[in-house]
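If you are new to this repository, start here. Below is one unmodified record pulled from the training split, so you can see the exact layout before writing a loader.
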Amino acid sequence: MDALADVLATTGFSGVLVAQLRSRGPGWGCALEQQNTAGFHLVAEGACWLRVEGRPPLQLVPGDVVLLPRGEPHSLVGAPEAAAVPYAELEAAHPPGREGVVDLGGLGPVVRVVCGKFSYEGDATRHPVLSALPAVIHVPGMSADAELQGIIRLLIAETTRTRPGARVVAARLTDVLFVQVIRAWLELTEADAETGAGSRQRSWLTALHDPRIGAALSLVHETPEAPWTVESLAREVAMSRPAFARQFRELVGAAPLAYVSRLRVDRAARLLRETDDPVGDIGEAVGYASEFTFSRAFSRELGIAPGRYRRAARARPAA
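And here is the target side for that same chain:
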């Protein structure tokens, strides 16, 4: 079982384009407040700068991708010291129209930035993927592998043309873009750890590269409802119980059974959102012996009872 794909599917993760920023010259600036979702920027033409508090300005050139997993406040500007206007004000002054382009005008070389976000269930700070990532991920287009460069070129092309279905195609490409950026970050993290240029960040994402712990994660994602114990997982990957428990915690950042519990609850949350199955049946399907033990585990993980979670989830679209 592909653990990354499973988590993204379980949390209903999907991408959507928000707008394109287009400007000319260095005097423009767009400020974005803290977002409640992950977002990204792809530089399609020209060059600009990304400003994030506590970090030096970062120059972005065509093909560069920036991912902000937890929606950090930031600014996109034409020059490092340029003033930034809140996006809402820019959008009101320059309505995007049918093509979704916020054209800021100006004189000079064209700068075009494709902006998007990702929707999913839950808080980014608790999302299994997003919470494991740094606040800002920058993937230079020139250093991206062939697959990522291909996705970048396709996304730029689809946001430039006016062919039927272009926005739908572009939105689907954002899903692929996200996975490719994560792969690029994982490879960079692995290379830095091997050369001593950086420390290995502990998360289940980086643990996927470990032959034994990665295999254990795949087993758990394939059958989270199985009666897993630390002993049975250790036996499956040919490790002693103490060594497995220690290495799992070191690499994943959580104890094995705590990870299993969170995965079961995430799987149950998806079933509560997408099916009409009784709460007790859902609890049994994800591995709990009784509705009481399921409700207790669900409330402990998400801070809300299963029934209330279902009602709240179904009320959101209507609201």
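Two things worth knowing about this chain: The chain has two domains: 3-195, 210-319. The longest helix spans residues 166-195.
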